[in-house]
Amino acid sequence: MSTKPTIEAFFDQPTNTVSYLVADPATRRAAVVDPVLDYDHKSGRASTVSADAILARATAQGFTIDWVLETHAHADHLSGAPYIKLKTGARVAIGERIREVQKIFRPVFNALDVSGEGAEFDHLFKDGERFKIGGLDAEVIATPGHTPACVSYKIGDAVFVGDTIFMPDYGTARADFPGGDARSLYRSIRRLMALPRETRLFMCHDYLPKEGRTQYAWETTVGEELARNIHVHDGVSEDEFVAMRTARDAKLAAPTLLLPSIQVNIRAGQLPPADANGVRYLKVPVKLAS
Q: Which CATH number describes the domain made up of 6-265?
């Protein structure tokens, strides 16, 4: 039986997010990794154009989608997981430490409906847990650092790394969100880099570097990251990485969709409950400067 999944990428340029349709070519069973809900922050309008493109491709290929796999509670786009689930019956899964993320952000938004136990998701994966996509073997690798709940999914010969690491010429993810930790991120990256050098790595995001390539890219290998990653190539120590990451993060602005994304994604992609007037609202906590 093949250990090489069929992988199709869907790039959402407004959020620089890559979603994936991953399938076992033998059984035609599939998973969707990190689907996007299209959301216009200026108008508050949402649509399912990106998710529909994935569903259309799955239908065209004769795939049955069994899983929606979230690498973490994203801070830069709203999840399309509930829509994929509605259309396919797929189970929505995330790492079990989503409980910590929910407990961090529940008081920020006074989100009293959020369980704090991950109950909004259909399955919470443990580190090292194994599951199947058709005949393909899949394994969960806990990769905290960007957030506590980050996981990577090893499916056949491919690993979907979420926001743990980026293309070699762009580096690594920030670690300054609540619950994030640069040391944990370094150790998570080294765990991924201990995989065979030919292992394919698929990014959740790509941003064009200031110099060099002009085309977006999202696939590389362990060997390429070890040799060329500008932040954490082979030879960079943990202390060096933490110093670099901490200094870099201090200069970064908050993602444009941080506030709407977090309050939706800790609910497994569901919008907050409707108010008495039947309208759903996203909250913006306001802090007055002293």
A: 3.60.15.10
Question: Order of strands across the sheet with 78-79?
Answer: 45-47, 36-40, 78-79
pLDDT at residue 289 tops 90: no
Instruction: Read off the tokens for 150.
Output: 């980050």
Enumerate residues 6+ apart whose C-beta is below 8 A from 280: 271, 272, 273, 274
pLDDT of residue 256: 93
| 8 A C-beta contact, residue 126 and residue 144 | no
Gap between the Cα atoms of 84 and 35, Å rounded? 8
User: What's the pLDDT tens digit per position in 10-39?
Assistant: 999 999 999 999 999 999 999 999 999 999
pLDDT tens for each residue of 100-148: 999 999 999 999 999 999 999 999 999 999 999 999 999 999 999 999 9
Amino acid at residue number 176: D
21 in Cβ contact with 58 (< 8 Å): yes
DSSP 125-154: EPTT-EEEETTEEEEEEE--SSSTT-EEEE
DSSP states along 233-276: -TT--HHHHHHHHHHHHTTPPPPTTHHHHHHHHTTTTPPPPP-T
Which two structure tokens, joined as six digits, stand for 242? 């933490």
The pTM of this model reads 0.96
* Distance (Å, whole) CA 153 – CA 165: 13
